[in-house]
Design brief:
The complex is a heterodimer of chains A (260) and B (273).
Chain A (H helix, E strand, L loop, with lengths): L1 E9 L5 E10 L4 E5 L6 H8 L7 E6 L2 E2 L5 H9 L1 E4 L11 H6 L8 H5 L5 H13 L15 H14 L4 E5 L7 H18 L2 E6 L2 H7 L2 E6 L2 E7 L5 H8 L18
Parallel strand pairs in A: 3-8, 3-9, 6-7, 7-8
Antiparallel strand pairs in A: 1-2, 1-4, 4-5, 9-10
Chain B lengths: L5 H5 L9 H25 L3 H17 L11 H31 L8 H16 L2 H12 L3 H25 L4 H8 L4 H37 L5 H10 L3 H29 L1
Classes of the chains: A alpha/beta (260), B mainly alpha (273).
Chain lengths: 260, 273
């Protein structure tokens, strides 16, 4: 369980990233955070694995206040939180297998990882993860030979190999075209269902949020301005969150979906 | 849009390329450079006339270098000296390539975020590079006596300065996104560097190490002149003994060696980058 208690974050340049955020996210939920860029979605997500550190309040992950974590505790926290990025963040010159195995680094000793001594279990886990996102045939391709959608699937496989309890996805489909976006979101949703991994996704596309979320949190200027199940959300809710009328580019579209 | 009436501006006047201010500034700079030159010539007593007077001497001396006595190149002592030069370069380049890894990581702003440590490392690397290789060789020959060892030490420090500087700049230009991903998944600092950074810099690293190896071959010849081993030492002896035909053969030998090594390392570099 993740619980934000009066969490605020002021960046060194004075920008208010988060303002008195109070949110509780239960096991297995699929939460989508919506808001315009600069609304604090990324700051919210990155506070959970402490890539950024809130300046006040308490942030409980599995009943521990992670804001005080340092060194080893911080590493252990990050090991159980997988993260997916807008730009996939793969090592482009390394092959897919090595990129996926990098998900095991937090679980592997420094020496063993440097001499490439990943256990047999780790290697078969990496392959199994690739199979789950249907990209196992690219095992030995270099990451930069893959398309954007394929790279994002490899990065999902990397997160699966990490065996996390939580998955954070920061604008995972912002660089992808509509069909590929739906494909990536479907994989995230499937993993959430099958592995009961609590998943928090940042999106700015209204239609995608509505289609995949169990629950929607709306943010504006660092504050949570909406929090409720998808069933309570309508167009007015989004206009309220965005503080303006809904436009066409708030929609991803792409109903013509392909499964692979 | 307002149209400029060129006819009006140009009336009765041909504009020059530079303004009067620019022209007078250029003239001033030219005058200063000329004055510095004349002053230096006067102080050192070296005029172009010296060159003309010395020219016949130069030709007379040059003639003594010919014909080169290529037989000297197969003398066992010369062969040994050539291989010593190559060995010095190999040892020095290898040691410098290993030592430059921590130095260039500490001297890269994106990896070493502590700005005092980074600033210190930058300063240290700059100092390292300001000492000419020949001065290093003189110092080490003074400490350890004549021979290969002081030469190798001088080459290590000399190439470390170049390598650490160039590689830290390569490190600063890498894509930091994968490193962020690894940190976010709980990887330690060494793991993050090894998995996220090393694959990105490895091709440039190998290329720069080969480049420094070429430089070291050339530098080790010069170091021999101050007694730091290698073929330079033999060359120096032959010139002192006035065996100029031998010296010429050795110089040509060095030239051929450098060209061959450059050719090989160019081919390898093309293959990896």
């Amino acid at each position: 369980m993740i619980e934000f208690k009066d969490v605020s974050l002021v960046y060194p340049n004075g920008t208010q990233g988060l303002k008195d955020v109070n949110v509780k996210i239960k096991e297995g939920e699929f939460v989508v955070i919506v808001g315009l860029s600069g609304a604090g979605k990324s700051t919210f997500i990155r506070s959970i694995n402490r890539i950024v550190t809130p300046t006040s309040g308490a942030l409980m992950v599995d009943d521990q206040d992670i804001l005080t974590f340092k060194g080893k505790d911080l590493r252990r926290l990050r090991t159980k939180i997988g993260m997916i990025f807008q730009n996939y963040n793969l090592v482009k010159r390394s092959n897919v297998m090595k990129n996926v195995l990098a998900g095991r680094l937090g679980h592997t000793g420094t020496f063993r990882s440097i001499v490439n001594l990943f256990s047999k279990e780790d290697r078969s886990l990496a392959y199994e993860s690739l199979r789950r996102v249907n990209i196992e045939e690219k095992l030995y391709s270099r990451a930069d030979e893959l398309s954007g959608g394929q790279q994002q699937r490899v990065s999902i496989a990397r997160v699966l190999t990490q065996k996390p309890t939580y998955i954070l996805a920061d604008e995972p489909v912002a660089s992808l075209d509509p069909p590929t976006s739906h494909q990536v979101m479907s994989y995230l949703k499937k993993i959430n269902r099958e592995d009961k991994i609590t998943t928090i996704v940042n999106l700015h596309f209204i239609d995608m949020a509505m289609e995949y979320a169990d629950r929607i949190i709306g943010m504006r200027a660092g504050e949570v301005v909406f929090d409720g199940p998808v069933s309570e959300v309508n167009d007015q809710t989004f206009e309220q969150i965005y503080g303006r009328a809904i436009r066409e580019d708030d929609m991803r579209g792409g109903a013509d979906r392909e499964e692979d | 849009m307002k149209k400029i009436d060129y006819g009006q501006v140009m009336a009765g006047k041909t504009p020059s390329i530079y303004t009067a201010k620019t022209k007078s500034r250029l003239l001033l700079i030219f005058g200063v450079v000329l004055a510095l030159y004349l002053f230096s010539t006067y102080q050192t007593n070296s005029t172009p006339a010296e060159l003309v007077i010395g020219l016949p001497n130069l030709f007379a001396l040059l003639a003594k270098f010919f014909p080169p006595n290529f037989e000297v190149l197969i003398a066992s002592s010369v062969v040994a000296a050539f291989s010593e030069t190559i060995q010095m370069a190999i040892i020095a380049t290898t040691v410098a390539a290993v030592l430059c890894v921590p130095l260039s990581l500490l001297g890269a702003q994106n990896i070493t975020t502590n700005k005092y440590l980074y600033g210190f490392m930058r300063f240290f690397l700059n100092v390292l590079r300001t000492i000419p290789d020949i001065v290093l060789a003189l110092i080490f020959v003074g400490i350890f006596g004549l021979g290969v060892f002081p030469g190798i030490l001088a080459l290590i420090i000399f190439s470390l300065g170049i390598l650490a500087k160039l590689i830290s700049e390569t490190i600063e230009s890498v894509d930091m996104n994968p490193l962020e991903a690894m940190q976010a998944s709980g990887a330690g600092t060494i793991q993050t560097i090894y998995y996220g950074l090393v694959p990105q810099v490895l091709p440039q690293f190998s290329s720069l190490v080969l480049y420094v190896f070429e430089i070291n071959i050339r530098a080790s010849v010069v170091l021999g002149l101050v007694g730091a081993g290698g073929v330079g030492l033999v060359l120096d002896q032959q010139i002192r003994l006035y065996n100029l035909e031998n010296a010429m053969a050795i110089i040509i030998g060095i030239f051929v060696l450098v060209v061959i090594i450059e050719f090989i390392s160019n081919k390898i570099r093309e293959a990896i980058v």
